[in-house]
Amino acid sequence: MIASSLFLLTGRGDRKPAQRSNRDNNERLRKLDKVSPTCTLEKWWASTKGKLGLSEAVDGQFVCAVCLEQVDRTHEIRELKCFHVFHRECLEKWFLGDHYNCPLCHRAYFASPPPPITPSVWMV
Predict the structure, then answer these.
(1) Which of 26, 54, 64, 78 could form a disulfide bond with 36, CB atoms 3.0-4.6 angstroms apart?
(2) 55-96 pLDDT per residue, tens
(3) CB 94 within 8 A of CB 116
(4) Where is the RING-type domain (predicted)?
């Protein structure tokens, strides 16, 4: 009885999430490519280790926070602005699921434009 009442109040039956077309998904992935291009973990690690000032003793082993599996040196990855690294496929799935923030630190992929400054607006 209570369950049927909750159904009537919320009106949330067996709704399926809106399906996007492949064209929409491809367009969205192109936007993701601009802020997070793909490369292999080995290539990324070679260029990033020096930038972060890490010693040669650091092993460079990473776990993808989306699937919780180890990222091998030959796997394609995506790096976000926050320097978090994920399997390419995992981050793409995450992004196409309408998640626009890093799965670990929640930093936005895209910087939102600042609100326009209008000197003529006054608060009373």
Answers:
(1) 78
(2) 554 566 788 989 999 999 899 999 888 888 899 999 999 998
(3) no
(4) 64-106
- The pLDDT, as a whole number, for residue 93 is 93
- Residue 79: strand, helix, or coil: strand
Residue-level pLDDT at 91:
93
Structure tokens of 56? Answer: 């040669």
End-to-end CA distance of the chain: 52
Q: Helix or strand or coil: residue 19?
A: coil
- CA-CA distances (angstroms) from residue 50 to 35, 44, 53, 54, 121? 21, 11, 5, 6, 48
Whole-angstrom Cα Rg for the chain: 21
Q: Which domains does the chain have, with CATH numbers?
A: 19-96 (3.30.40)
